Structure formats: C-alpha cells, structure tokens
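To: structure desk
From: M.T.
Subject: fold request, one chain
Message: Could you run this one when you get a chance? Sequence is below, nothing fancy, just the single chain.
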Amino acid sequence: MLDKIFIILLFPIIAIPLILLSPKLNLLDFPKKNKIHKNKIPNVLGAAIYIYLFILVTVDEISFSIEAIIAYGSLIFFIGFLDDRVELTPGVKLFFISVPIISLILNGFDLKDIGNYEYINVISLGKFSFIFVLLASLVVINAFNYIDGIDGLNLSISISAILYFIFLSDQDDQYVKLLIYILYALIISFFLNLLPAKSSFKSFLGNSGSLFLGFLISFLMIFLYKNENIHPSLLIWSCWLPVYDFLRVTIIRIYKKKNVLKKDDEHLHYKILK
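Reply: Done. Structure tokens follow.
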C-alpha cells in the first residue's frame, strides 16, 4: 500500500522541477498567431501527470484495468509530447493514436452494446462494435485536444469528469482510490495552469496532456460500463462539452468549406472569451 504522504508529495516533486527546467530544455509553448498567450510558457503539465500516474501504477497494484489504460496511454502521451515539439501532421498523429486504442479494444475494452433502454431495449452493436469504439474514442480524444484553448478549461472538464466517475462508483471499490489519485494530480495542475503568465511555476498541459486525458476518460467510461454496470447514458455526460464543441466546429468548417483540420477561432471557448 502506498503511503499517503508519498502520494501527496510525489506530484509536486515531479511537476515543479519539470516546469523550472523547461526553459533550459526548450519545453515551451511559443506565442503564435492563433494563440492567446504572449509569453513563452512551459507545456509540461501533461508530462508531469503521466509520470506521476506511471509511477503510482508501477509501485502499487490497485486496478489492473485502469493500469492497462495508463500503460497503453504511454504512446498517446509520447505522440502528444512529440507533437508539442515538432507539430506532427494530422495523419501521423491519427495513426499513432489509433494503435493503443486498437490494442485496448483487442484486450477486452470492446463493447457489445451501448446499454438497455426502456422502450427500445438493448442497443446491440454487433459487427459494428470495433469500428464504433475506435471512432468514438478518436472523437473523445480529439475533442479534449480541441478544448485545450484557454487556461484551465481542459483541466476543469477533466476534474469534473473524474469527480463524476467517483460519484457514480461504489466507494468501496479499490479502483476509486486510483481515481482519487488522478483527481489530486489534476487539481494541482489546474492551479498551476491558472497562474499568471509571468509566474515561474505556470505551465500548460500541452498536447501530451490533452490527448492523454481524452484517452484516459474515453476508456474509463468503457471500464465503468463493462465492470461496474454504470449506464452509458450517465457516463456520456462527463464529456458532453468537448464532444459538442468538436462536432460543432467540424460542421462549421465543412459548411464554410474550410480545412477541417486547420486551427481557427470557431471554438465555443473563443466565442465566449470574445
């Protein structure tokens, strides 16, 4: 069993030095035309969250299924971390993001149905099971990446999602402990993310963080339905805003005959900010 003091101290011990070393390691988010910030800001909170969770699941066995999600999410993290540095093409990112998704589907994170409903009974996926989980996961992952446009937004949605999962779960279940660890890291990251731009401790999630959190929440929903029998109609509310924004922006870009993959200011959070 992990010591509580170790758990509390571990994330700051990882995050703070990583943020302070970011300028020397050139792990920075530079100001650009389509970005709000005017200063060079570290973008390593995603790395800190991933390293923290990786250490926790390495030194203690809490939930095999959630540990598997974090382990397979390693590739998601690394591709996001690389994208923060060199801006990979959408096709390359899509390929490498799909690999861990497919691996998890083939290792028990598939869905035979999406729940039992009062008037239509069970909605069976049948032969569409694989493609449904693949596409749904890609939508959620990219939706969380899309929503990471202003300070605190992605993290606040992620915090709400994990809190919601904890609320829906049986508090006696062992995996809830790991969800609480995840929640703790997200809350600390949220406050670091909201610090003023000139603060030495301010950092962004980076694509490594937004992609990884989208992946984590996507497969946590599958885990909670399959293992805890929590209805999908409840679970889907954890990510309604990112998915709504993703679909809305995509439809607007298609309507305006824009490149659906090119960044713009059509996102809901930019409209609200204006």
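Reply (cont.): Strands lie at 28-29, 41-42, 113-117, 121-124. Let me know if you need anything else for the meeting.
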